[in-house]
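task queued by scheduler; priority normal; single chain, no ligands, no partner chains; default sampling; output format set to structure tokens
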Amino acid sequence: QVQLVESGGGLVQAGESLRLSCAASGRTFSNYAMGWFRQAPGKEREFVAAINYSGSRYADSVKGRFTISRDNAKNTVYLQMNSLKPEDTADYYCAVARARWGLPTSNLEYEYWGQGTQVTVSS
């Protein structure tokens, strides 16, 4: 049974940093893209970042502040979030893509999802 478990969320002040982790179990995902999405209250889930074997991509809103990385030996993906802003407040979800190629930005292209971790940034 595939399971993704996020951790690392919390309450921080604007300008501070957080590091989210997502540990996968049940399968090895080293050949698949993994991504981070977020959903703020009353808003749709949106793409944040994705990583595969050849590179990564980011939403414009987080580019230069967030960094996605992965440790295939640990089957874990990370999201380092620096210079956090109140508008980054959301539930953050990690996901595994359906395909082995690409860096998809649509949540429809992801097959497995974690339960989410809450990030709150106060001003």
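post-processing summary
- The two ends are 40 Å apart (CA to CA).
- The chain is about 0% helix and 50% strand.
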